[in-house]
Amino acid sequence: GSFTGLRIGLSVGNALSYALNIPIVSGHGPDWLKTGIKDIKTGKNDKIILPEYDAPALTTKTRK
């Protein structure tokens, strides 16, 4: 579905950013592009953004 496409696209973007040492900067609002460019020029790309969910992750337990 489209959500999986977004996740794959973001994963590829993150991998390319890491491999090529290119910062990822986000922006929002009507002037998101102008804000993003200003943040890149001033070196403001050091925020770590983590997703917040309403429940803990459901992961498979390791076998012993």
Helix-strand category:
mainly alpha
Number of helices: 2
Q: Which H/E pattern describes the elements?
A: HH
What characterizes the major β-sheet?
Answer: none
* Uncertain residue segments: none
How are the elements arranged and paired?
Blueprint: H1 2-20, H2 32-42
Describe the 3D structure:
The chain has helices at 2-20, 32-42. The protein is elongated, with a radius of gyration of 16 Å. It is 47% helix and 0% strand. With 64 residues, the chain is mainly alpha-helical. The chain is built from 2 helices and no strands.
Brief synopsis:
With 64 residues, the protein is mainly alpha-helical. It is 47% helix and 0% strand.
Descriptors for this entry?
single chain; 64 residues; mainly alpha; 2 helices
